[in-house]
Design goal:
By secondary structure, this protein is of the alpha+beta class. The chain has a single domain, classed as Peptide deformylase (Peptide Deformylase, Alpha-Beta Complex). The protein has three helices and seven strands.
């Protein structure tokens, strides 16, 4: 679905992948050539903001390592994210746009993630609480893990 964005650019909202076989593929690294698809990921996440707080690129049918998280007033985008440290495990109950129902999984209250931003600059940052849980869920998608 194409929509005119507020900056005059076309928004591309992609369909949500539901096929477990395609969702179980490991994501390949994202490069500069993939940034238009990353923008589609952001547009698709925004279009589902009432039902979704995070999205991985394979959720829109592209097996590339990018995630987007709705942080309220902004979208956090992580290219090629890797969770380096995990601390304080707990049982979480999560849902997913790609799957039916709520499932239990182990998450960590604190994580440290290395990633690249949209300018391909490297960052390492610690996250806690709900944001950390969302990042872990989306990184599982990139690894082909479905909860």
């Amino acid at each position: 679905m194409d929509l005119a964005g507020s900056d005059g650019q076309q928004e591309m909202i992609r369909a949500i992948a539901k096929d477990p076989l395609s969702l179980s593929k490991k994501a390949a690294p994202v490069g500069k050539e993939d940034l238009a698809d990353v923008q589609d990921l952001i547009d698709t996440l925004r279009s589902h903001q009432n039902e979704c707080v995070g999205m991985a690129m394979n959720m829109i049918g592209i097996a590339k390592a990018a995630i987007a998280i709705d942080a309220g007033n902004m979208v956090i985008v992580m290219l090629n994210p890797k969770i380096l440290k995990r601390k304080d495990p707990y049982q979480a109950k999560e849902g997913c746009l790609c799957l039916r129902g709520i499932k239990e999984t182990v998450r960590y209250r604190e994580i440290t993630v290395s990633y690249q931003d949209l300018s391909l600059q490297k960052h390492t940052k610690a996250f806690q609480g709900y944001t950390a849980e969302i990042i872990q869920h989306e990184c599982d998608h990139l690894a082909g893990i479905l909860i």
